[in-house]
Input
Amino acid sequence: MTYQRVKQPKISDVIMQQMEAMILEGTLKPGQRLPPERELATRFAVSRPSLREAVQKLVAKGLLVSRQGGGTYVEEKLGGSLSDPLLDLFKHHPEAQYDLLEFRHALEGVAAYYAALRSTAADKQEIRARYEDLQRYHEQKAFDKEVEADVEFHLAIAASTHNMILLHMMRALFTLLKHHIGDNLKNIYPKENWRSNIHDQHGLLLDAIEKGEPERARQAVHDHLAFVEEALLEQGRENTRLERSLRRSHLTSS
Output
């Protein structure tokens, strides 16, 4: 019988595979800067040349980006499958925001369900931290930071599902989702009671996930997005009434 020699994997390949897994799992996020080479080598318990070789391979794959004198980063556009021209089409199409809300019902409902089912104590701590960011910026009326925190809150929930496909689907939609949430808040937030209702809804979602109640978490997402849709429709009706009033006023004055 002929035996094939077992080939020992190169240390750099083992490091590379571990870092690829960290990117897939969301431990390393798009745009995140890696720790300094010495620190990273210590964490992996490997030599710096082996680490350097692994990083070079990941750069060649387009997963990492090295900046001269500025460190190494996870590629910022990783998973960004929606191009700017497509974003512009979505932004200017009147039905797009409702189609996206419908899609969010499906995707975020599943994410909330599995987050409540699978999230670890560390996951829940991360989701709560993003929720507290959201609350802080809300109280400060820091609109742009609040939009960013809103998106990060939903992405933290997606990460806690421990489903890599679901997480990266959400990340691929990050730019579109940011525009969508921003546009929604601009339309809804002039109404203070609507704004406070949205924050209460985020709190209910957090509570369901922390208590490990998947069906309640999924329902909290659906209730939240149904409220957003109704608020947008009401705002649209109010804008139409205002336009009619202005037209009547113009005709009377002339």
Observations:
- The chain has eleven helices and two strands.
- Residues 236 and 242 are 10 Å apart (CA to CA).
- Strands lie at 64-67, 71-74.
- The first strand starts at residue 64 and ends at 67.
